[in-house]
Automatic annotation (TrEMBL):
<dbReference type="Pfam" id="PF07755">
    <property type="entry name" value="DUF1611"/>
</dbReference>
<dbReference type="Pfam" id="PF17396">
    <property type="entry name" value="DUF1611_N"/>
</dbReference>
<dbReference type="InterPro" id="IPR035086">
    <property type="entry name" value="DgcN-like_C"/>
</dbReference>
<feature type="domain" description="D-glutamate N-acetyltransferase-like N-terminal">
    <location>
        <begin position="53"/>
        <end position="124"/>
    </location>
</feature>
<protein>
    <submittedName>
        <fullName>N-acetyltransferase DgcN</fullName>
    </submittedName>
</protein>
<feature type="domain" description="D-glutamate N-acetyltransferase-like C-terminal">
    <location>
        <begin position="130"/>
        <end position="327"/>
    </location>
</feature>
<dbReference type="InterPro" id="IPR011669">
    <property type="entry name" value="DgcN-like"/>
</dbReference>
<dbReference type="InterPro" id="IPR035402">
    <property type="entry name" value="DgcN-like_N"/>
</dbReference>
<dbReference type="InterPro" id="IPR027417">
    <property type="entry name" value="P-loop_NTPase"/>
</dbReference>
Amino acid sequence: MIATPYLLYLGHSSDDIGIKTSRGLAVFRPDICVGEFRHDDCPLTLGLARMDFAKAVRAGARTLVLGIANAGGTLGEDLIADSIAAMEAGLDVASGLHSRLKDEPRLVETAARTGRILHDVRDPQPGIPVGNGRPRGGHRLLTVGTDCSVGKMYTTLCLARAMERRGIAADFRATGQTGILIAGSGVPLDAVVADFISGAIEQIAPAREDGGWDLIEGQGSLFHPSFAGVSTGLLHGAQPEVLVMCHDPARTSMRGLPGRALPGLAECIAANLAVARLTSPDVRIAGIALNTSAMAEEAALALCAEVSAETGLPCSDPYRMGVEAILDAVLDPAFARAA
């Protein structure tokens, strides 16, 4: 287990989307975050107390979370140097980067010398089975998206909390490093060998008979050339009863692919339903979640109303406006829209 509380790392980051892991923890688990570490050239903040490593240890922090995402998920020299300094100050280090902490000799040596622990959150557990696609009991919802980083985790967590407020048994099933750090468990799906992706989801969201819901965090997009494979395996393994589509209306091109346009909502909904039907023939779409964080409130409300009128689906910004209308559609088995 990763020791809490956390000190959240921003480092030299200047890309707001690139600090999504640290931001997600600050938003959904502020109870286990004591502060943020950033260098003087970092223009970003999570609104937490700025601390150096020694101050964070005095404040009770036990683990530095490298909650950033750079191109390729690599451990640059700045990250290595800061991680060494953090361990020497008395902190463990946790990372969701593709480059593993345990593969950097300097970090391994420092951890051994200081008695600290290195946590590679993107290491999947051994023994993941191959998916079988056989029908299994229980209610499952999967968030899908027009692109990467459009709010699938936020939407899933908001739906889980809304269900809990209604007294409905609901479990958030994490599939990415941020979600795993928030939930304390899950599978880092983009680190799973392709043949085992659907099996990994069957494993973390098995059959259930208590009437509750597994709310599964989506990844990637069927329309993103780089990540459509993981999205496909996730759709098959989740065997979802319900989909919720996530979209960032401020996005002008696919993340990391300048000039490549995002799909239209209707096109994306139809494609996701078609793929999901392989293992869930009666799957339905229950709503659209927009990330309107870059918009003024009046414009955001107007856009949600417009999208709802165009698609016939409830639409909101889950974090900003709530998810009650979407949740009503999720829980109503008669609610379905022809795709």
